[in-house]
């Protein structure tokens, strides 16, 4: 008799989220209050950047990951914009380069010093001017060096060569309304956009054409988002006509109907999707929510499989996402979020529970590394290449619990021969009528046995302690020898009839 599988098998079924301890959070940060559906936070293996409130312009904090605890109000910021900063993004090929878009209609690219900021940074490496309205979306090309995309409220997408500060492509007339989100494909040949006209578009930037378009991907009027998956499919979040939040999966070859569609709830916060191409897990965070839902994308229906929900008490103002190469693989960490509260940033660690301390190959396939696959000029010339992959095995650090710890003091005390201990305890209570001469040789063998153990310690204090213990045992043996002699004398007197 065969039983139908009730529970789907998945190695990510038991993924759980855990916030770090209070002292490992970043406290006393005035997170930006700008009404824009951005993440407000960007993270890489060296720094965490957070858009903050600033008077007389726009600014964002850049903190080394280890600088946790309370952040002083006088801590230097990156403050070159004349209007509020709306979006920031770290360069995937240089952990010290970050781009920012602002209400002042400019895009600025900044070089962060090796150890973080020691004074306010006001001079960008390059200023990119081309938008006529505020710039709300910034996104680096995943595989080509120095290629940066920006999208503004002028409904124009610009692609820049940051190395030469020149405009490579200007995509006008493709979007009739505000652009909500932009996401590059894994090889950077195309990108998809979600627009206020409720359409999702797949665009080839080098040709300047719309390759595919889905009108009314989500019926609701609230903001929606679209991201490219590793296999070329598109994952979208949005709202139904009844204002219920939805997730959908689309095949770019056939956009007539979604491959999968799920309704979540009726909250009104925009859903921010974060995608891990190595595990095919999508994490969905709602602005103003206090939870993170995660789903696994598979090849078999219903394609979108709910895994679990991480919930906390405080609502999130924004969310940062650590690239895979910045995770702790020795603790089976598969994702790390940086949740923005009103006054602090709290890291949340997603872990797959495993009993083994070994490197988990199935959780950590080769992932996108910090090397660019090509230069900007090669990409413009028509070349397409996937990311340069690196193994995370080198980042694996064996658990400290596997280290051998030797407590020499304990071993020393436990190595004392039992004969000496027993004899010392039994000596004073030996009855006069029994000849106790037999145990004497066993006692005399105790000092040499301890002497051999005494050669193990190397410290001067330990050696002195061992020598003192040897001397005490020798004195004890001598004292017991004298007692044996007296008892033998008493025994001979009794045998000879003397009282």
Explain what this protein looks like in three dimensions:
There is one protein chain. The protein is α+β, with helices and mostly antiparallel strands. The protein has helices at residues 376-380, 408-414, 418-426, 440-444, 446-454, 460-495, and strands at residues 16-19, 26-27, 41-43, 47-52, 58-64, 69-70, 78-81, 85-90, 97-102, 106-111, 126-129, 135-140, 147-152, 157-161, 166-171, 179-184, 191-195, 200-204, 209-214, 225-228, 234-239, 245-250, 260-263, 271-276, 281-286, 291-297, 304-311, 318-321, 333-340, 344-351, 367-368, 389-390. The strands form eight sheets. Strands 1, 2, 6, 28, 29 and 30 form a six-stranded mixed sheet that branches. A four-stranded antiparallel sheet has the order 3-4-5-7, with no helix packed on it. A hairpin with a 4-residue loop joins strand 18 and strand 19 (209-214). Helix 5 runs antiparallel to helix 6. The longest helix is centred in the C-terminal third of the chain and has 36 residues, at 460-495. The model is unreliable at 1-5 and 397-458 (pLDDT under 50).
